[in-house]
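Hello,

Our lab assistant flagged a job as stuck in the queue for most of the afternoon. It eventually completed. Since we weren't sure the result was trustworthy after the delay, we are filing this so someone can double-check. Below is the sequence as submitted and the structure that was eventually returned. Let us know if re-running is recommended.
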Amino acid sequence: MSRRLRLLLSALAVAALLWLLFGAAERALALAQRFLALPTWLQWTLGAVLVFFALLGAAVLWWLLRPPRKRRPVAAPDRASLEQRIATLDERGADTGALRAELGELDRRRAGGRVYVALFGEISTGKSSLLRALAPHADAASDVRGGTTRQVQHVDGNLPDGRALVLADVPGSREAGGEAHEALARAEALRAHAVIYLCAGDLTRSQAEEVRWLAHFGKPLVLALNKADQWPADDLQALLARLRRTADGAAAAVVAISAGGRERFVRALPDGGSEQVERARAPAIAPLLESLSRLTAPGAEALEGDRANAVLAELHQRTGTLEASTRAEAAERIVRRYARRAVVGAMAAVAPGSDLLIQGALATALTRELAALYGVRVSEVQIDDFVRQAKLTVRTGSSIVLAIAGNALKAFPGLGTLGGGVLHAFAYALIFDAMGRALAGSLAERHALDQHDAGERLKSMLADASSSRLQRMAALTLEAWRERDRDRDTID
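-- returned structure --
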């Protein structure tokens, strides 16, 4: 296109724009005149409507164009309360060694004052190669098949400005049978001040979830696209744009790099044959170094808050899991103890359910002890109401319990030879086992004495005829019965 033609088209475009502006101004003046000619009340009404729609449009425009909000890191408990919970677990006999070791590592790294950066990502994305590129002296094995890192490796490295870093190469995620290695990787990522998440293409759903999980803790995160030299320039830019959209603000920076390493390919020979060739690729990681320098510029002390928050938040979850398992084990012991007491108390029972009043004290004590175990405050009225409801439920389901107990006697000959009273004792073992398990499950989930929920669980448990449960209660009944016989023999 010639220069004169471009000027002519530009002039025509400017003229068209001016004509449109002139027409819009003329139309606006005409509307203003018609608006002023309207009655005053109608002017105010239309004005209010126009202002409303103008504000609504401005709000929508701001919502579309507003800068992304900084993600708030996951909340973590204060250290003192966490240590108190760990001490309580110690008193209950739980193994808290791993939790205390994590707190010790948190203190050790804080005292060291060095910046830790974790290399995170799925297998075969080039983490070990990137480690060698960031720290050429590191002895990190790599293999094109992937999955060469089995443990966390710490290597000293330096940024271009001379600041020292501790680089952590962690096992790759999504490795078949590598759940333990993945747990190591996640734990080390939380201990680090910053994280480099390495990928080799578009993020899969699982990778996007990992990125969001890491960003959830609020620490600096760089999303690095490795093997960028294998992409044409246009495709590379499009891929980076997709990564930014998928990350959705989770990553502080998205960069393209080439970690180098080694590659294998098949080369054709002049004689028509072929051979396997392995060669080195030069690293190109300048964008990553620049992002790392910027994100870690505040130093270890300034980054320590987010790092400690991440570690304590994860410890909070792990402590909660250990608390739940410890309480479940304690509840199992409590329920077994009361089931055995119920067997002893039911030795002379006429029929299960009809004389549950005799066992009322046991049911009340069981409810009170389980509520105390789960830290649920209950009043005497609540306990009485629950026991009363449990009695009605047991009476309704007594035929089912008797049927289960009768069938179990045939399966356990040792019980069948002890006499008719064993049926009732066995039934009471089943009843109190069901009551205790139903109540413990409800307290653990609802954190309150929910009578309806506990009642529904009790109905389900009363009809549970699983072999493992029957075997446990049969062994408990047999033990209590034989102990009673031994006591009688001793007295005689």
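-- support follow-up --
The delay was a queue issue, not a problem with the job. The result is valid. The chain has a mean pLDDT of 81. The beta strands are 115-121, 153-158, 164-169, 194-199, 221-225, 253-256, 261-268, 274-281.
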